[in-house]
Amino acid sequence: MTFEWPKRAGRSSALLTLAFAILVSTSSVAAQQPAGVEPGFPSTGPISGYMDFHFNKADGEAGTLDFHRFVLLFTHSFSPRVRFVSELELEHAFVEGLEEAGELELEQAYLDFLLSRRFNLRAGMLLVPMGIINERHEPPVFNGVERPFVDTVIIPTTWFEAGAGVHGDLGRGFRYRAYALAPLNALEFTAEKGIRGGRQKGSQANVRNVAFAGRLEYRSSRHLTIGASAWGGDSSFSVPRLDTSVRIGEVDARYRTDRLELRAQAAQVGIDDAARLNDAMARLTGVSPNIARSLRGFYGEAAYRIWNAGAPRDLVGFVRYENFDTQYRMPVGFVPLKEFDREAWVFGITYFPDPDIAVKADYVRLQNQSGLVPTRQIVNVGLGWWF
Q1: Is the C-alpha dihedral spanning 163, 169, 170, 176 positive or negative?
Q2: In terms of Cα–Cα distance, which of 271, 268, 279 is closest to 323?
Q3: Comparing 30-34, 130-134, 285-289, 335-339, which segment has the lowest mean pLDDT?
């Protein structure tokens, strides 16, 4: 997949142009508001959220019980045309000092300036519009106790950054989102998890160079949804004279009938100047990270409603095949680590005692192409809900 993006010198000016556009448009929004206080505004709420906790047991290892996520979402409408949306997430039950016991993350905190159906402005902490799961990852909306591997290793869900952009509904089934965001930090890339560690998460993010992300979705009917996403940005701001631009392309499709649901997704990551990036990181740390110049992953999933009488008589069985490789194409002079060329079969069920509560169980067989690292077999049980 090949994408062309604005040259580095123009990216910061593009962000300034977008900021100016937001200032002008917000004044336009204010001018459209009627004098006085409109009935029902301002208003706060509702408060919503989602939670999930899991039991995970890999062969040869002790089982673990983890309250994985506790998430609260707050909204406030200043007027019919200006609203605030936020999402605060606590992972693994608690956060203790600098230890990796848990995380407290601000995943969303943005203002929407609603100008029209086709064109609206958004600024703040944003979810990157990439793939099926990153923007909609509440437990009842996907099968499996854990999120798909492709959506955690190739697309680093949950991926959020500070930025601004536009969104809207074009009609005839088309919707779009396009944002200017903080880029990834290439010094945090790894052979095993690819670009995941490079997320800056809006924390004093370096924006010497701005990244751009966009997504277009087409819904032909209530049965079929097709989407395509792209991301691009220079990610080597921490190392002088290094030109590590990153490009991501993704396509996905979902189809649903009365009992059957199918979904598929494919994503590929390109990393420019990967050889020099490996050399620079080797000089800094003493060890080469063996970062690839290309990563790719895809999956296909089929789910069938075995019990289709509505909650609490609602049971889904599913199977998913995933293939993901963070060492897909290597720069000249580097050899791929085959243990990171992986595939997984996931078999499971999801029971809905209520439409907003999911009781899940699955079996995962995770293989790799190395002759040294054994196949992992994992049993997961989980409970998730949203409100």
Answers
A1: positive
A2: 268
A3: 30-34
Say if CB 122 and CB 114 are below 8 A apart. Answer: no
Tokens of 148: 């798909």
The string over 103-117, giving b where at least 16 C-beta atoms fall within 10 Å of a residue's C-beta and e elsewhere, is eebbbbbbbbbbbee
Q: Is residue 35 one of the residues assigned to a domain?
A: no
Specify the pLDDT at position 97: 65
pLDDT in tens, 231-257: 999 998 888 788 899 999 999 999 999
Token code pair at residue 368: 């790799």
- Residue range(s) defining the domain that contains residue 284: 11-27+42-386
Count of structural domains within the chain: 1
Q: What CATH number is given to the structural domain containing 69?
A: 2.40.160.10
CA angle (305, 309, 312) in 5-degree steps: 95
210 CB neighbour count, 10 Å cutoff = 24
Say if 269 falls within a structural domain: yes
**CB of 339 within 8 A of CB of 369?**
yes
Provide the pLDDT for residue 5.
41
How far is CA 149 from each of CA 145, 202, 269, 287, 321, rounded to the nearest angstrom?
12, 24, 15, 26, 10
